[in-house]
Amino acid sequence: MDSTEIQKILDDLDVQLSVGKIDLPTYQALIQKWSSRLAGGEMLLASSAHAPVPNPLTAVKAACPNCGAPMGDDLTPDRRFYTCEYCSHKFAFEQARDQTERLRLELQSWLSKMVSGAAAGGNAVDATSRAFIFREKLYPSLEMEFDRSMELLEGFLEYPLFQTEIVALFPEYSSEKSPLRAEHQQLAPLRNLTGKLRAPAVREFVVSAEDEQLLAAMQSSTTELIHTANIMQQSARYCAEGYTAARQNLDALRDLYQTTQKHTAAASEKQFLSASLARLEGTAAVMDVLSRIYSSASGELMGSAFSGELDTAKNFYAQALQLADESGHSPMQVVPWRYGVEKEVALVGLQTTLLNTYDRVVSNKGGSFFEFQSTLVEFARQSKAAINDPQGLAAVADGLALLVEACHGGRALPRLTDWSWLDDFQEKNRSKKVMFVGTEEQIEKLEQYWQPFWLASLSFSQSEGAIFKSGSAKQALLLLDATSPRQFFASTIEDGSGLNASLQGATRRQVPDQRLTLPSLVTEASAQNILEGYARSNPLLRNPKVTLRQVIYLPTARVVYKSKAGTRVLVGSVITSVNPNTDQLRYSTGEFVKRYARA
Amino acid sequence: MGLLDKVKSATGLGLSPAESYHRAYEKGVLLGKYAAASEMFGKAAEKFQEVGQSEQVHRARANEQLYRLVATKDLSGIDSILPHLKNLSTIEELGSETDTISAAELATELEARGLENAAQGSKDNWNMAQNLHAKAADNFQSLLKTKLKTYKLVPAADHNDSVEERYFLNQGYSSYYEGLLVREADPTQAAERLSQAVLAFKRAKDEALRGQMDQMVSQLRIKRTCWLCHREMLGQGLNVDYYPAHITPWGRDLVAKLGQDVTTVEDGKVAVCLSCASMIQIQADRFAERRVDALRQDMLPRINQIISVVHALTERIANLERIAHRH
């Protein structure tokens, strides 16, 4: 009979005692018998290392000294080193033994404070007294320890369970600030508490099913925290092993939720656990995708191959959210949990976009997914684009993919292909010497590119007539420079003007030329807000109504004039309100396009 | 348009009811003169009344009141708009003569605004405020697929962008007042209601309110053992709070050694429950009052004596002044 079977018998004896099937003397006799057989195994670690023989009742089950998860393998002095399957922590046998012994002594000391003589384990106490001691002494102390530990870790539900490499750009979506990671040292009291909750000496005082349930609920919460912390940490390693270890914890968490669900009576809690299980299914699907991506040595993937699994994950998340909303479970749990799930949904959305855009971007020149990710991060950094959330990054990635496709000729863009203004613009702005006075400038450099603008229709009313004033409804177009998310450049293009007619025609899509096209960095929602604010701030535009249409690309030029006095730069376009500070954006877009589009 | 027409349009004289109605747009709304527009709609309504066009009467009256609301921003005028809207299926969009919107949807939004306004005025009556915000949220819920119709020209203090934001804002306030109502009887339930408020304010994109609710939930969830009665109390700032006390490191260690709640001691303060703290406070006040009374009793004869000495001295000085004045 191996130690696992003996352990099972010992656990059964705990249960039989707790439900009153056997009395205490019988229990103690049997415990002594089976514990002696287990000597040398995990229950009596200290004895196997020639330490003083501890009371089997105050023995502590062996756990990983790092994360506190139960050990899958039995600890024996024959094996020097172990690796925790949940947190990948490598540790020596002695380390685990010392940790277990420390916890055992702590337990013994705590019990002696709580119940004088109980730690010895030999006192025959009747069931009524045991129940009384549990409710009046042990449970309040355990509950207080539990509450105080949880207080410090409160808020962990608000964070996503997993982390992707690119999410480091958005601290709010990263698990880095989760108390389970940021306050990792606070997990130590929980690990100690878990040891107490599992100890036979504590179980000895659990007589009624009700008390058993109280203890089980507490144990379930501590175990949940241990595995959740592991998932967060392991997924933040950004490697296949990390994601595999995280998956292991997910499985443990799933078992825990299923067991809890079986024993819980409240329908609302049952349904919330179903929601939590559906969420785990979603997270597991994502972990599998990430694990496969990071298993690839070359990093060259078929992004679309993962879209099915990611769609499955999204479906699980949707199901989880619906189940939780309809559960009627405590909002104190459901609300922060919902935030965590919503963040995961946003991360899955970003991952899906990244994989799809990766396929589009590398179709011409190839490249690894990891390189694509880092190029994108580099683009975000260099261009100083105001990307605040995963949706924003997904929009930028999509915009860049569009430009790369346009460079290949595979995508037409709505453009105003009129460069006729350029010669006039250059000449009109060039300083000239008149009658030997002034500075003669030369054009040193001319850079032409396509700048994105949000195009919107504007309806408003205006005053007409000199003597008999009356109001009339008008139409116009609005343009907002889409390269500048922080400082806005907007223009009104009046109805009937030549430019208005040209812009109406610019909605036709055309295959771009070799000139650089810049991506849009302003989202649709913020373009709508900015243009509404702009229209309202103009006192001449009464009753304004803005209807956003699309992004169009306008011809823009950067002219460098040179003279004896030095150089100066002028940026011009078909309109005057244009963002002149696109040096960073042009450089980073150029780098991106050079990498993925041009030979 | 001939000169006569221009004069008629400028003065409003000799216009048909429909022309008067159009004039309200031409000379009022489209020029941004909303108070004038309101008056002109009123006159158009009278003309429609004379010719017995009841639907147009309601339309003109509704616009009269709507543009008065736009001009004055006084939400108490909402009640006078609603009866007219109930008789219309569509009405012109605010600021436009040609674009129309559903009159029923506009009425629902205005009702919601009225409820919001009443709730704002009932902040001290939590029950009423909760009720009004809940009803406003219900109204906005039925409009979730539409756009806000009045908030551009009659903006609220904030959240003027979407029906969704207004819905969640009202829902958040409703949950917040629910939490306040049950806080003293059941801190756990109060924390649950406030958690709902957290979610609603987040959905309303109001980070400030969300932060406030978060803070309240965190406080309500804190348990501390009372230093005096050793009861575990729930809800910091409500049932338990920290009070200044002297405690040495030895005393602090003792708490830990005894396996007691170490969080009950914090930087020269100890956690004491409301009952213990208020009992001490009330008793201390009573002792202080008694001591003050006793002191007053002791001091009163001496004070009276001093007062009569002061009186005598004042009289002597006055006499001396009179003598000095004579000389």
Structure write-up:
The complex is a heterodimer of chains A (599) and B (327). Chain A has 599 residues and is α+β, with helices and mostly antiparallel strands. Chain A is built from 19 helices and 10 strands. Among the domains of chain A are: 124 residues, no CATH class; 161 residues, no CATH class. In chain A, the strands form 3 sheets. In chain A, strands 4, 5, 6, 8, 9 and 10 form a 6-stranded mixed sheet that branches. A two-stranded antiparallel ribbon of chain A has the order 1-2. In chain A, strand 9 and strand 10 form a beta hairpin. The N and C termini of chain A lie far apart (70 Å). Chain B is mostly helical. Chain B has 3 domains: 98 residues, no CATH class; 110 residues, no CATH class; 65 residues, no CATH class. A 3-stranded antiparallel sheet of chain B has the order 5-7-6. In chain B, strands 1-2 form a two-stranded antiparallel ribbon. A two-stranded antiparallel sheet of chain B has the order 3-4. In chain B, strand 6 and strand 7 form a beta hairpin. The mean pLDDT of chain B is 93. The chains are: A alpha+beta (599), B mainly alpha (327). Chains A and B meet through helix 4, helix 5, helix 13, strand 4 and strand 5 of A and helix 1, helix 9 and helix 10 of B.
